[in-house]
Amino acid sequence: xxxxxxxxxxxxxxTRICVATNGVVRFSVCGSIWMPHTFYLMEENKMNQQYxxxxxxxxxxxxxxxxxxIIFFISSLSKMSNRASSSGTSSSKDxxxxxxxxxxxxxxxxxxxELKSPSTAKFCSTRDATITRSGNxxxxxxxxxxxxxxxxxxxxxxxxxxxxxxxxxYTVDSCSIR
Length: 178
Fold this sequence. Notes:
Elements lengths: L25 E5 L2 E5 L6 H5 L7 H30 L14 H15 L7 E2 L6 E5 L2 E11 L5 E14 L2 E9 L1
Antiparallel strand pairs: 1-2, 3-5, 4-5, 5-6, 6-7
């Protein structure tokens, strides 16, 4: 319901500045005379509606979207972990507590003993190497860049198979550098 001005108020055409909100009496300037007036810009029921709830279909849509995003994220994580476990690498430790990283370090030590210039050796990363374990026996395959007897740097593939016997002691089963 729109409230109309009282008869004592100045007509709107006679005012220069008319500022009134929510039924509060304000003053307007008419020439050099200040006169009070009341002016309602909105219906009373619209003034009380400051916040409207979003429709139910919008809320349901937001819930469905975030649920689908969470399910997609969880399924992506499980696929990544399945891929890592089926890639031929074993992330578990042997009975002496040796990890893949330690097995690769040991294999690099074995390969360096076979090289002409071991100080120039640059090995592949653990990610590029293939590391498998069966009990305490480890097989490590990868590549190494090292200088040959003529001083040229050559990339060679290697495969080392060794078994840990006690603590950090091991026996070399095979070492192939091609």
